[in-house]
């Protein structure tokens, strides 16, 4: 089998050298860039199997790079691991909500890096093919192929996570799902995120949907469902 191709993005040359050395030793092909602009160009011209993305980049920062990659049909399915010195919960949550698949805080051990990369690549290969058919329910239209949501004909701008959350619930109106089931469905089994983050994402999604946000109902003590 061909080696998985990983794009490493960091403005610190010593970090890139460490990452490249250990990933190459681990059997991966590695490309390195030092800016957000270069990351976008490289990912779009030749989508890698995974992107290691630092948040603290000059110019276009890592969060903006993540957002733009998730909006581009060419790169929206490429797994992203945030590699950053910023360990605050708000930074991590922001990256995960934009569609990042995992995060590693600096300083990191090469063994942890390789384990996380392997786990994310494995999750991606094990996921079932996503239902790409259009969905229309209660005035909401979801178009997975275009990553587009319309509410009563008006376009709504959702993050990658919000889009997948809406799609998952709306395809099964009336079904009640626990927060753990939602995490597994939206991000994959073993995703490093808390139950509380699901509540935050639901609040944000409801707000963006306006009056239609009431279609996502809280089932106290259990989780959430989309109104039947």
Mean pLDDT: 87
- Helix and strand pattern: EHEHEHEHEHEEEEHEHHEE
Q: How many H/I helices? A: 8
Widest sheet: strand ordering: 2-1-3-4-5
Q: How many structural domains does the protein architecture include?
A: 2
Which geometry do the CA atoms define? elongated
Give the structure's gist in a few sentences.
The chain has 228 residues and is of the alpha/beta class.
Description:
By secondary structure, the protein is an alpha/beta fold. The protein has helices spanning 13-25, 36-45, 62-71, 89-97, 110-126, 160-170, 179-187, 195-209; strands at 5-9, 29-33, 50-53, 80-84, 102-105, 135-137, 140-143, 148-151, 154-156, 177-178, 216-219, 223-226. It folds into 2 domains: 5-126, Response regulator (Rossmann fold); 135-226, Winged helix-like DNA-binding domain superfamily/Winged helix DNA-binding domain (Arc Repressor Mutant, subunit A, Orthogonal Bundle), CATH 1.10.10.10. It has 8 helices and 12 strands. The strands form 3 sheets. A 5-stranded parallel sheet has the order 2-1-3-4-5, with helices on both faces. A 4-stranded antiparallel sheet has the order 6-7-8-9, covered by helices on one side. A hairpin with a 4-residue loop joins strand 7 (140-143) and strand 8. The radius of gyration is 18 Å and the shape is elongated.
